[in-house]
Amino acid sequence: MQEPAYAKFTFSGLRTQAIADAIARSGVQHWLVCGIEAHICVYQSARDLLARGAGVSLVCDAISARHPMDKAVALQQLTALGAHLTTAEMALYELLEDSRDPAFRRVLARVR
Questions:
Q1: What is the rounded CA–CA span in Å between residue 103 and residue 10?
Q2: Coil, strand, or helix at residue 5?
Q3: pTM
């Protein structure tokens, strides 16, 4: 099933009602967060997820900012709020859990 695309004008995705509703309906308790402008949209969206009691893992190598200090401060602030740091490869293997998973070979081919 393909998820719909949402127009977002707010910096935090959760401040857009359609996105907030979709997140609530999903039942997901822990989110992998990535995106551009770490100190703006990523920061505000992750902060709002944490405020709602969700778990947040920041995929550090899939988050950017124009200025390295902006990214560093955003990650520092979010970890102080309870977010965890991860990388794309680390998150993929954590989701797989087992090399016998049918998706393992496809993931391995992508990360090499």
A1: 35
A2: coil
A3: 0.91
